[in-house]
Amino acid sequence: MKIGIVGAGNMGGAIAHGLLQSKAVEPACLYMIDICSDKLQPFAELGVNTSLHSAAIMDEADIVMIAVKPWLALETLHKLRPTLRQQAMVVSIAAGITLEQIRVEVQGLPIFRVIPNTAIAAGQSMTFIASDGTSREQEQTILSLFAGLGKAMLIPEQQMAAATALSSCGIAYAMRYISANMRAGVELGFTPDVAREIMLQTLQGAVSLLSYSGEHPEKEIDRVTTPKGLTIKGINQLEHGGFTSAIVNAVKAAM
User: Fold this and answer.
1) Is 166 in contact with 251 (CB distance < 8 Å)?
2) In what helix (H) or strand (E) does residue 232 lie, and over which residues does it extend?
3) DSSP 106
4) Measured between alpha carbons, how far is 14 from 122 in angstroms, rounded to an integer?
5) Domain regions of the chain by residue span
6) pLDDT tens, 111-164?
7) Which tens digits make up the pLDDT trace of 82-114?
8) Which CATH architecture has domain 3-155?
9) CA 15 to chain CA mean position, Å
10) Closest CA to 58 of 36, 35, 79
């Protein structure tokens, strides 16, 4: 399978790294376009086919991913259309660009709208996929491709905004939580590096515990909050500070 990526910025580059690291595609079967040579150079050194301008580089791709800024996505699709293979699958990563808008530019081709998050570079993205004009086999191809870079699920397009707020924006919220805990750790006497190591393992442990137990997070909280204990004091302080409400409101604000 040959895959083309238009745009080697944060998301396009992350997807390319993820695909290469997961062995989903060989470097010689990956094609990338970007206007910035500095972004393409690391991939060219790995054997990826790169181009600064020529859309013709995509004429062999079975899957073409549009990973440019949203305001450039439709114009990019319009320019690419004459060069695409007759049965090429078009995957748009551009936030806010609907399947209907994509359909106008690439009439006759199977299209996907995909929302990953930046953890895709580490093979740990939560990726959401909506499609139009596709077969079940094509859906499974794209689903399997992104499932190899973390977890992926097919959802109705009308849920895309909510999925973005919950997961893509959620990465930033998680980073802010880690940063806050690191600051607390430094105040308590740890160096920043040690505080970071402690927090990363703590969060990995929490995620693993929930995956293993299948329990609701509140049940796991109950197991660690003993009467008159330290944890319940900290939990109550979080709630006095509006922690839960702040998270809920942040997710809703990102819609």
Assistant:
1) yes
2) helix 230-240
3) S
4) 8
5) 3-155, 163-253
6) 999 999 888 878 899 999 999 999 999 999 999 999 999 999 999 999 999 999
7) 888 888 999 999 988 999 999 999 988 999 999
8) 3-Layer(aba) Sandwich (3.40)
9) 8
10) 79
pLDDT band at 255 (very low <50, low <70, confident <90, very high): confident
pTM for the predicted model, two decimal places: 0.88
Query: In DSSP terms, which residues pair with 132 in a beta bridge?
Result: 111
Alpha helices in 86-191 (DSSP H): 99-105, 136-147, 160-163, 169-187
Determine the Cα–Cα distance for residues 145 and 23; give it in Å rounded to an integer.
Answer: 10
Q: How many Å apart are CA 35 and CA 50, to the nearest integer?
A: 10
Q: Which CATH architecture has domain 163-253?
A: Orthogonal Bundle (1.10)
Report DSSP state, residue 165. Answer: I
Residue 30 to residue 163: CA distance in whole angstroms = 28
Determine the 3-state secondary structure of 115 from DSSP: strand
Angle subtended by helix axes 243-253 and 230-240, to nearest 10: 50
